[in-house]
Amino acid sequence: MINTFTTDIIPANEQQRLEALHRYRLLGTYAEKSFKSIAKLVSEIFKTSIAMISLVDAEVVHFGSNVGMESTTGSRGESFCSLTILKDEVHVVENALENPVVASNPFVCGDFGLRFYAGAPLVTHDGFMIGTVCLVDTQSRKFNNHDRTVLEGLATVVMEQIELRLENLQNSEKQVEVNDQLLQSNDKLTASEQRFQYILDTMAEGVGIIDQTGQMVYANNMAQQILGLTHSEIKDRTFDDPRWQNLRIDGSPLPPEEHPMAVMMRTGLSLFDQEIGVQPPDKERFYVSINAAPIIEKGTGKITGGIGTFMDVTNRRRILQQKDEFINVVSHELKTPVTSLKAAMQVLNRMKDNPRQEVFSKMLAQSNTSLNKLSGLINDLLDSNRISLGQLQLKKTRFSIADLVNDCCSHVRTAGTHEIILQGDIQQEVTADESQIDQVIVNLVNNAVKYAPDSKTIEIGIEHLGQEAKISVKDNGPGIPVDQIPRLFDRYYRADYSSIQFSGLGLGLYISSEIIKKHGGRIGVDSAPGKGSSFWFTLPLR
Fold first, then answer.
1. Is 384 exposed, middle or buried (0-12, 13-18, 19+ CB in 10 A)?
2. N or C end of the chain: smaller count of CB under 10 Å?
């Protein structure tokens, strides 16, 4: 091995250091290459095309986990990593041409043109430096204390993984009586992997890094997508920049000092799931949930910046609002039939000793109507709960769709307000849960009666489409606004037609949708304002 540096690259404890390296059993194994995701993260954070996790052997440096290098080994006498393992600190060469120790190195004065190097040593639990987490650039650059802290932290994560892997290997080689220790080690390894996976997962969401002044210095692709800004636009702003309006959940302006990143920087404490609203100047308001953690300089304890991860929770906020509205709707919808039933029973109680037939019949009919409505509401709630718990069961039989339609729509024909027109392939049979399909058709027909009272005809069509049967319920009512169609089958959603709010829990179409999905079919609606609506679903014929 030829030393191309002007200083000795062999530490005094070299033999013990090599023994420490070899005890981890990493060289030439899959584990050596398993840290490539961290190399990618280093490359992404520091915006360099070359990054690696290296292991320094007697004469060879191994870097199977790397970004930007075709080879996976190099001579120790030429590798800058040989210098990094001499001291337990981040080793930085900001301009190799001006550094006499490395200026004659072939990577510096040769075609490669190395100008910048930064490496953090991988330090074992007993103090031996066996390798590095490092980055290389062909342009000279500055590397501040914040950068050193981040790189050192990543080296700690890698070494933790290596230590836990060794512990796992040692435990697996022990006898059966130490299986409990092996399980604990596996749990530790799994927990560590999950922590690191969480870092990668947040990279797939939104990640932003700020400096001491609150200036944005980094934002990943998902952060740019959520905020609707380019990376350069984000770096031109602070987290509380007035060019985006931060809001409390209630819609009032969020003071800069209450922003989660400001609280974290002021207190030095990590914050989790802090929800705020963001109002761009020319876009729809959205909500984000923020996790914030300080970047603390080792040794001094000084906060040098902060990392914020965030995700768009606009849909979650909408669901919570729908649930609140749903509770109010349930209270109102249940109260109406209960009040009516109570009134009818009070009248019947007062006239029990001297009943009048016409009043008695009217109150009894009113009671039955209230009980039926109450029963329907309770059944909808129970069905919704069974669906949520995955307890919707199917009891399939073979039956005629036309016969089912005639039976389940008899109440509409009896009322005489609408004409039911059955058309299409009336001989079609399917294998399905007859009672549940009955429930779906009744719901669609009742909706046509409710939302299109002036449409005196309701057309029910049956079609044979290849491997499935299609059933449609069409009315000639006012139609459905385009912006409401995507949410019609959502749980708790209640349609608003021409600013008229109809009664009901907003569960009928959701339950119908889940029943059809459970059968392996599809459900949808074709509608346009002023042109009526056609709700349809399919059932597989196989």
1. buried
2. C
